[in-house]
Amino acid sequence: MAMWQGAMDNRGFQQGSFSSFQNSSSDEDLMDIPTTAMDFSMRDDVPPLDREVGEDKSYNGGGIGYSNRIMDFLEEPIPGVGTYDDFNTIDWVREKSRDRDRHREITNKSKESTWALIHSVSDAFSGWLLMLLIGLLSGSLAGLIDISAHWMTDLKEGICTGGFWFNHEHCCWNSDHVTFEERDKCPEWNSWSQLIISTDEGAFAYIVNYFMYVLWALLFAFLAVSLVKVFAPYACGSGIPEIKTILSGFIIRGYLGKWTLVIKTITLVLAVSSGLSLGKEGPLVHVACCCGNILCHCFNKYRKNEAKRREVSYYFPLKTLWRSFFAALVAAFTLRSINPFGNSRLVLFYVEFHTPWHLFELVPFILLGIFGGLWGALFIRTNIAWCRKRKTTQLGKYPVIEVLVVTAITAILAFPNEYTRMSTSELISELFNDCGLLDSSKLCDYENRFNTSKGGELPDRPAGVGVYSAMWQLALTLILKIVITIFTFGMKIPSGLFIPSMAVGAIAGRLLGVGMEQLAYYHQEWTIFNSWCSQGADCITPGLYAMVGAAACLGGVTRMTVSLVVIMFELTGGLEYIVPLMAAAMTSKWVADALGREGIYDAHIRLNGYPFLEAKEEFAHKTLAMDVMKPRRNDPLLTVLTQDSMTVEDVETIISETTYSGFPVVVSRESQRLVGFVLRRDLIISIENARKKQDGVVSTSIIYFTEHSPPLPPYTPPTLKLRNILDLSPFTVTDLTPMEIVVDIFRKLGLRQCLVTHNGRLLGIITKKDVLKHIAQMANQDPDSILFN
Question: Which CATH code fits 359-447+459-599?
């Protein structure tokens, strides 16, 4: 039957006691929900005989000398009514209306007593308290993850004998035998070859260190994928596609639960430490959302309203902006107190370039933007193709083997190259670095052909042997990062994409920057240089090119522009380089959009079939609501409930024979005049509760949704009033409404369905899933792909 479907069809509905609905009403629960047909057989379906009525004065049915009493048990709210099943879309309009009613009731009661006034003040303050707790918890977890990942990454190469809890850098900080040129070497830090065979020299020592590096990487990866598979399957991936879908109103129970938070935090450290080409910034968004969701359950204001927990999505009032700012402030303060980077700064890659950029350099910056766009489009297409292969073949059944194979390949290829062996964050920091006189890195191995340096600035110098060696190693690193990231992102472990994308761009930018620097040094007389670059001046900063390249590649993958530039400010502190960053980001987006409209997260949303309406895309097709609504022509009639003529048995039969998430209520089947809309879940809970708690409610009891009971003949069982669960103002459109307007309404109001009428008569229904299928069909895509998988 062509009737209403929710964002996901409910395959049958749950059997058992009413407590089963209560148990699945929290987002902390796991997703396993048994779905079987409900058994409506009740022992009290037959009204008692007259003599039984006389013996049992508590019977409320219509017997001789007894009036027909109305069962309006919904005068007090029933737990579970108004909640949602798993894999369904929330009703934004209803949730916001309920929140306004709650706020209005608290405000009115605050004038009655001092206690009510205190309750009103605490309710208003609870939002700020929640933001404080979220900031403290998120900042603490971020610091813990960063410190732990740094220590475990260094553990692959050796251990600190002065204290095993110290990483390599901290171990040598306290040493008295460290030289400035070899600040990373100290007697307290021992490689595995020194611990096992007591020497760090020779081929055998190299093989031992190589073996231990690969072994630790495999161990970390195995622990990460095993914990995810066994305890929290939702802890894999970056989480951003799912977070966007949840914020749009979709319910995925357990995705933001406590088990997911614990396992994601632990496995994120293990995954990053394994040396795989992934980052922790994307998964940290998931971690922060888990913190917010769990802490929301401490406050009734948020626990009982799905929209309040998602008001950063469609609804973003000014007070939410200020509270978000406050939460970020608390998280930053907490992170600064922990000082995970060891430099008393909040930014991950602090930069301090001494030379301003020149207008001519916009040309290579734009070239980096083009490279970033090409890389982004290539990565999205190849990664989505690989993830689709993983989902549709036997490969997806062996996540542990896949992770171990990719980890082994990555570790074996990474160890010989010092730039792939180090963590990706350290690599980016090295590439962003502006070389000084005291830098011992190979990237700063220039020939010093000068006597003095003005203002602390070093002039452009010819590259030395170390620089040329580093260029070859970086070129090989670039190839490995481009290829291995395609297969890494999307595996069943926590995996972010920010850091790998930035690494690809930073390597390309540093290579181009060094090339421009040497070109300016050896060909200073060229017209493009002599007007602004004088002999012996510091003209080109390769580190700036690395930063711009990182922004370009990140923009090509995610299609971010303004937010990307802000993120780069946060990561580097380089506020004065806004123009180069914006030029590269915009160029990257234009090039990538020319090759494909979707960013990586939108592509994964479509791949998984999540019911997400992208607000940025325009719908320009000339179709009408009647072209999309159900039922279509030649389809069976829409299944509806009547307002006062159906029995409990009639409603239970409809529920058991259909899988729809709700039903329109009409005056009668003949008139089809719309009265309202009732959710399937609310019907089930209400009828089951009435059968358990009210005597006399039987299968022949009349259910009505009107204010007053319909006239009934004598000797009829008690009626059941369900008006309180009826939505009396469902959103409606006419059959001639353009779909362009309908799509816009769904996006801006966050609707889960709207009813289609003609002159007040009900014709059909359009759900969010129908809209998504229609958009896919108009874009020549498979409409059946819009199904949560």
Answer: 1.10.3080.10
> Do 41 and 267 meet the contact criterion of CB atoms below 8 Å apart?
no
Tell me how far CA of residue 622 lies from CA of 738, 767, 786, in angstroms: 7, 19, 22
pLDDT in tens, 266-280: 999 999 999 999 988
CA distance 98 to 83: 12
Residues 6+ apart with CB under 8 A from 438: 180
pTM over 0.90: no
Contact status, residue 389 vs residue 395, Cβ threshold 8 Å = yes
Q: Which of 278, 246, 295, 263 is nearest to 138 (CA)?
A: 295
Q: Where exactly are the structural domains of the chain?
A: 136-338, 359-447+459-599, 625-779
Predicted confidence at residue 454, as pLDDT, reads: 46
DSSP assignment of 334-354: HHHHH-TTSSS-S-SS----S
The dotted CATH code for 625-779 is 3.10.580.20
- Rounded CA gap, 207 and 624, in Å? 69
Residues whose CB falls within 8 Å of the CB of residue 399, separated by 6 or more in sequence, listed in order? 225, 229, 491, 492
Cis amide bond preceding 340, omega within 30: no
pLDDT for the residue numbered 283: 92
| Torsion angle, alpha carbons of 194, 197, 200, 206, to 10 | -120
Contacts of 97 (CB under 8 A, 6+ apart): none
**Helices in 281-423 by DSSP H: which ranges?**
281-296, 300-303, 318-338, 362-392, 399-414, 418-421
Q: What is the pLDDT of residue 529?
A: 76
Question: With a cut of 70, which residues of the chain have pLDDT below it?
Answer: 1-80, 82, 174-184, 311-319, 339-352, 354, 436-439, 449-460, 535-538, 570-575, 785-789
